[in-house]
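Case study.
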Amino acid sequence: MRVAHNYSLSFYIDRLCVVNILIIAIIHCMSKSFEAIKDLGKKMIGTDEGSQFQEKIQAYAQKYNIPPDQARKRVFMEYLQYAKDEVGSRKAFERGSGGMKSFEAALRELTGGAGIDMLKKTAKQRALTQPKQFVNTTPKDQQAVEQYYQQNYKKKPKQAVLRDSAEGVKNFDALLEKFRNDPKVANNPDIMSALLDPDLGGDIGQALLEHDMFEKHERRFESKMKFDNSMESFKKSGIETLKTVFGKPLGDFVGSGYRFARDPSIAGAARVGWEGTKYAAKTLTKGGKFLFNTVRTTLSGANAFAEAVT
Amino acid sequence: MTKEQLANYIDISFIETDKKRRLVEALSKGVSVPDVQGVFEDFLIEKINTYGDKYEKATADFESISVELDKEIKSQEDSLDKVLDEKLATVDRTDYDARNKIWDEYYAEIEKLDSSYEKRIKSAISKIIIHA
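After joint prediction, the assembly is written out as follows.
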């Protein structure tokens, strides 16, 4: 049964106020949440290498009271030095190294999204007009790369890869050193225009290409190692399959409850597949040292009935 | 063990059918259970030893195929390495496109070799298992 209510206007106004208050409270909570999400986002964005680079430029400019261009150049040169030192000390491009990541992030910040590719392109174009370059590495340089692989993969790559990678590392170091000491860099307060110079930009592009090549070798080495390991596992599983093929019949048979009259202990052992079968053969065969080859001796030593049956 | 139990074990055992038949016949002709069981176990041992021989032969065959194949692949890889060295010696360090091309070709050849190795080793083990 429906009950008709005759509410006054003030009743509805009161209710409306309550709803409004609730809505305001929800919006307030949501805006707080949005602020928290925004803060989190800022924090997350702020932690990537590119943002850190920009933050460092700002901090540097404020701390030393210098123009942003000058601060940008100084911070970039610090990043360059960090990458150079890191690669130089290890004599290898450590995968996921902080130095290289930061250096590339700084270059991306300076040159924009496609800037790194442009630098590499500049390096390739410059190579067409430059005299041939040879990088001489010492056995020690190659040993350092070998050590890097040994430490990370417990295996060394082919000689050609060692040589190429060692040359790449050495060339990288030389190119960054050349860039760092170039008067055009020293005398130019703006690092952006230095990077646009075909020669200087070419040096950086070439250094990045050396890094790419090193990583390419490492990736290939890794996938080859995975393949070799998978083949080794395959071979092992092949042998295991053979063990199953030859071990299962006896295992199944003694599993059905049969006990060898001449050695009841075989029952349990033979259930363990091939190892059990091997044990059974050894134990049951007379003069077990002639394992697998003595059954005819065994049979010939059997009684007259055996002779008749066989 | 009763006659029936032994006959059942003979029936489900892994010895040859002909031998099973002869043993069951011996039982039905009144040969004692211990005597038949003695010969039955000789047959079982013979079979176990045959499995051992087969297993040893199969693993030895597989080992030898595997070693042979490894040797062959290694020799082909050495040839590829030699060609790689020769090609790299003619290219300028800064000619990244040319160097990349040489390395890509080299790695592609290595992949081809690996793929052929994989096919051959899998086929070898399959054949051995089937024939075992």
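Observations recorded in class. Confidence is low (pLDDT under 50) at residues 1-5, 287-310 of chain A. Residues 259-309 of chain A form one domain. We will return to this complex in the next lecture.
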